[in-house]
Design goal:
Number of strands of chain A: 23
Helix content of chain A: 25-40%
Number of helices of chain A: 18
Oligomer: heterodimer
Largest sheet of chain B: 4 strands, antiparallel
Strand order of the largest sheet of chain B: 3-4-2-5
Shape of chain A: globular
CATH class of the largest domain in chain B: Alpha Beta
CATH superfamily of the largest domain in chain B: Malonyl-Coenzyme A Acyl Carrier Protein, domain 2
Radius of gyration of chain A: 25 Å
Number of strands of chain B: 9
Chain lengths: 546, 286
Amino acid sequence: MATRSWTQNRDAKAAKLASISSILDGKFVKTENAKNLLESVINPGDKVVLEGDNQKQASFLSQTLPSVDPEKIHDLHMIMSSVSRPEHLDIFETGIAKKLDFSFAGPQSTRISQMIADGTMEVGDIHTYLELYARLYVDLIPNVVLVAADKVDREGNLYTGANTEETPVIVESAAFKDGIVIVQANEIVDKVPRVDIPGDWVDIVVPADEPYQLEPLFTRDPQNITELQILMGMMAIRGIYEKHNVQTVNHGVGFNTAAIELLLPTYGEQLGLKGKIVPNWEVNPTPTLIPAIESGWVQTIHSFGGEVGMENYIAHRPDIFFVGKDGTMRSNRAFGQMAGQYALDMFVGSTLQIDKYGNSSTVTNGRLSGFGGAPNMGSNPTGRRHSTPAWQSFRPDDDPLGKGEKLVVQMVETFGSNKKPVFVDHLDAEEVQKEAKLANVPIMIYSEDTTHIVTEEGIAYLYKTDSMAERQAAIEAVAGVTPVGLRSNPKQLADLRARGIVALPEDLGVRRSEAKRSLLAAQNMDDLVKWSDGLYNPPAKFRSWS
Amino acid sequence: MLQNVSHDLLAKVKDLTGVELTDDDRAYQDSIQIQLGILVLQLFNIRQLRSINQSPAAVAGHSLGIFAAAVASGVISEDEAIKTVYIRSQKMQESYPTGYGMGAIVGLTRKGVSELVEKINSDVEPVFTSNQNSELQTVISGSIAGIKKVLALAKKDSAQKAVLLKVPVPSHSPLMQSVADVLETRLATVTLHDPKCIYLANYNGHAIRNVQGVKYDMINNLVHPVYWDTMMDVAQELGIDTSLETQPGQTFTRLVKSKFPDFRTITMKNMKLDDIEFLLEKWKRG
């Protein structure tokens, strides 16, 4: 009987590394040899993770990959949480890559739809972040991972700093399963400020021709917050944060939640809620949180990623943020998403469409955007055990074994910025499923997980509804003059209000006339800088005020 | 319109088609005069841009404009573009002398417009959903009778605008198949090259990098809607952040600006060549 080798993967990896010994100096490969490197260590059909996080992009390696010879390297199975750069898709046009498993593709959503429709690309699945990370350890174990670091020392130790994001979860999946870990480095140094990834896990380092791409995605200029958003924020604070005694929270990235952040130190203070609600946050370090931090509302913040311009402010607030001994923040998207599932009372987000049943999606016609963080944050983990007042407030009275629920709140204006109704009978996502031949309709947050919808009309307490018909009626009642909303009538509305299923501003003691911009703790970027004692440094594109 | 266009280009049109471009409002009532006039103006603009060593990363034409786009991207020669457009305009003029045209609806989604079109479209009064100029700006094409009925329904559905356009032909609809057939025969014998830059195709809104796709677009352009809105989405996703519109107008610059307010735009109609050169060089330096 022939003896089976139990080290075939290890041997294959050793052989690959041996084959590039001529361009390898320790762990280092010269910038100009990057293409040669990729052609030598990637095999056709390999599973390759290209680090495209929500914020950080391994842009040097992603620009190098399209330059390889498609005769040598083809049919790759790409695994990317975020598809955001043009070349991420160019490699499918040239045949270098064939299949894609991903989470978010907002910045390339038109092209990705076209490529699926014409067969240029095969899609595995559109995942939530946690699903994608989890599968790296089960049935999508990568052969090669291409990641980005700020600084690398001679031993290959990585400093990934504030934008550590997905680097640890990606690298670990390859490093311990004979995958090859290739890192692009902004800078090679003698000693890294701190070790975010041990050099032992890293095989190859290439100095990048320029620093990796990083965009300030979560900066919202208070100047653009409208009075309608302020009204909705006031309703949410009274009718949800206060009512359910919410302690732990994640906010989405829109202006609605930015408004709430800026109302806590003013309106929240007036209501006497300081010290009573939302001390603990899982959220990116958005500048609009600065006034709430400075006025003592926020006690802790853990973050998925960093935010350009917030570095120095964070360095001076280590009691609030997760900061290393070196003084810079450490982020981790995998842990952040886990926190969203299991440690938070509430998620508050926004969407482009909500159907008459309460399902929501940001996938609209011709645009397969995927969803980023919202589906994990905006779903109820039914296996949760630990109890909080907010979670308990959903526990049914009549079921001895009943359990609580996470609050999942959608905040939308009834008409979007493009004047299209947000409330629709059918989501565009249903069409997109057919066009792109997807197994599931790309719904971002399911109706069954959605506990509240807030609009400029009022709040629908969906969790209080007993039937789908009643749920639809509650949605209609807050859907304004959209086709869905026009089905509501005064009698139905009065009944829903009487039973506490729908609340209008007056039911919550919120006066529409008070919803003024002057109620915001900061009205522009300059105010945010002042609140931060000059520690916040807004990126150039937000500096028109100066 | 053509006062600045170089004489050899105008002479070229005369040589290749026998058409003398008289360049006055009356002549431009004629489909052949207006199509050749616009083409020759755009060919002149392309020569101007080449003279200041500017080359595009991507080209996008709208309907007739695809021929200038094909010249700018090196797919077809000036001469062949002129001859092809001459045949295209001749054939368009003959096809539907009366009773056909186009309409525009603003404020409804394409899906919304298509539902109305489906209610009305019949063999007797054909009407089709046509060009998508922006998300909420859809053109319909077909019989005047069918178009008017769809426009009436659109107004009932509270469209902001629903108007008949001054176009005498049901362009960008299946009714134009006979023109496509003639162009197919015509282009079968013409030497074409792979585009030197990305070509954004009218017929499906895709970024095209090979000659077959551009050829298909030049032949079948009039049969399909112009997916202008999708073309712009794709351009932006490809990293394009600057647009330059050739003459005669600035319609497409307005569409780009309202879709992408951060885009840097140039209209050749409103700007001198040396100013254009200065701006483009400045933006390249960053």
